[in-house]
């Protein structure tokens, strides 16, 4: 068992060498405890992913495609985006504690994680990924909904994110502009799933970081009309009504629990 768990340690150590070795002298991070190296790597990776994805997406939709996807009065000001960046950067060190904790639990053998796809086979791997995503979708839906329905949670945590409640206050940089505990709570289903079914370790880490790209995408106010994806058109309605579209990747949970509101139907009604 110890030999198998060492595969996880070797993998996280490999990621540490790639990220930390690229940006810092080894004499700075080499002596640090393994768990702290993991947190530092997640922090550097998270910050880079946030800024690279945010800037590239903003450059594309607000500059290269200016007035194509959004009318001029729907483009957020630089001041609004800088405020969102400030909130996200204050929270980022805390966000990175969650994947660091999940890595520690995986390396300690507390979860059902497996290291190699060959351990279960491709068919089982794909089934596990689908079930994992269903668990995450269900968990994030209800976590998000309760952050609205339980008034103290909304007042002291989620309201920080919902000050962005109009098209011209939303941008890709709003994707991680949460109270730190709010952001962590909404990502907790990713970790809970590790205890419920076998999950491929690398896939788990990748999906956690894909969250940062996804949240940037759903705050750009552009309705992509890719059914059944819970895209930015749906999420913009969530920010303006507070009562609909709590889902994450797809519309299924909102459809099942009666909170779905379709942006296309909204546009028809306005006309």
TrEMBL record:
<keyword id="KW-0812">Transmembrane</keyword>
<comment type="similarity">
    <text>Belongs to the sterol desaturase family.</text>
</comment>
<dbReference type="Pfam" id="PF04116">
    <property type="entry name" value="FA_hydroxylase"/>
</dbReference>
<dbReference type="GO" id="GO:0005506">
    <property type="term" value="F:iron ion binding"/>
</dbReference>
<dbReference type="InterPro" id="IPR006694">
    <property type="entry name" value="Fatty_acid_hydroxylase"/>
</dbReference>
<feature type="transmembrane region" description="Helical">
    <location>
        <begin position="122"/>
        <end position="143"/>
    </location>
</feature>
<dbReference type="GO" id="GO:0008610">
    <property type="term" value="P:lipid biosynthetic process"/>
</dbReference>
<dbReference type="GO" id="GO:0016491">
    <property type="term" value="F:oxidoreductase activity"/>
</dbReference>
<dbReference type="InterPro" id="IPR050307">
    <property type="entry name" value="Sterol_Desaturase_Related"/>
</dbReference>
<dbReference type="GO" id="GO:0016020">
    <property type="term" value="C:membrane"/>
</dbReference>
<keyword id="KW-0472">Membrane</keyword>
<keyword id="KW-1133">Transmembrane helix</keyword>
<feature type="domain" description="Fatty acid hydroxylase">
    <location>
        <begin position="129"/>
        <end position="259"/>
    </location>
</feature>
<feature type="transmembrane region" description="Helical">
    <location>
        <begin position="43"/>
        <end position="62"/>
    </location>
</feature>
<protein>
    <recommendedName>
        <fullName>Fatty acid hydroxylase domain-containing protein</fullName>
    </recommendedName>
</protein>
């Amino acid at each position: 068992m110890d030999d198998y768990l060492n595969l996880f340690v070797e993998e996280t150590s490999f990621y540490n060498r790639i990220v930390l070795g690229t940006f810092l002298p080894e004499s700075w991070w080499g002596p640090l405890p393994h768990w702290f190296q993991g947190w530092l790597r997640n922090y550097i990776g998270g910050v880079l992913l946030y800024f690279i994805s945010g800037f590239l997406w903003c450059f594309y939709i607000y500059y290269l495609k200016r007035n194509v996807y959004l009318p001029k009065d729907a483009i957020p000001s630089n001041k609004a985006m800088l405020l969102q960046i400030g909130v996200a950067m204050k929270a980022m060190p805390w966000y990175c504690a969650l994947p660091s904790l999940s890595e520690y639990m995986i390396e300690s053998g507390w979860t059902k994680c497996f290291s190699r796809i060959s351990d279960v086979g491709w068919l089982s791997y794909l089934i596990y990924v689908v079930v994992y995503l269903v668990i995450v979708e269900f968990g994030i839906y209800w976590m998000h909904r309760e952050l609205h329905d339980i008034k103290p949670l909304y007042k002291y945590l989620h309201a920080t994110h919902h000050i962005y409640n109009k098209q011209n206050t939303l941008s890709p940089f709003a994707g991680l502009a949460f109270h730190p505990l709010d952001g962590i709570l909404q990502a907790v289903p990713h970790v809970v799933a590790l205890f419920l079914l076998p999950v491929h370790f690398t896939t788990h880490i990748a999906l956690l970081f894909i969250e940062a790209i996804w949240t940037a995408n759903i705050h750009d106010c552009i309705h992509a009309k890719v059914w059944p994806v819970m895209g930015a058109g749906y999420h913009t309605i969530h920010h303006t009504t507070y009562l609909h579209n709590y889902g994450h990747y797809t519309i299924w949970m909102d459809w099942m629990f009666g909170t779905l509101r379709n942006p296309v139907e909204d546009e028809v009604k306005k006309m």
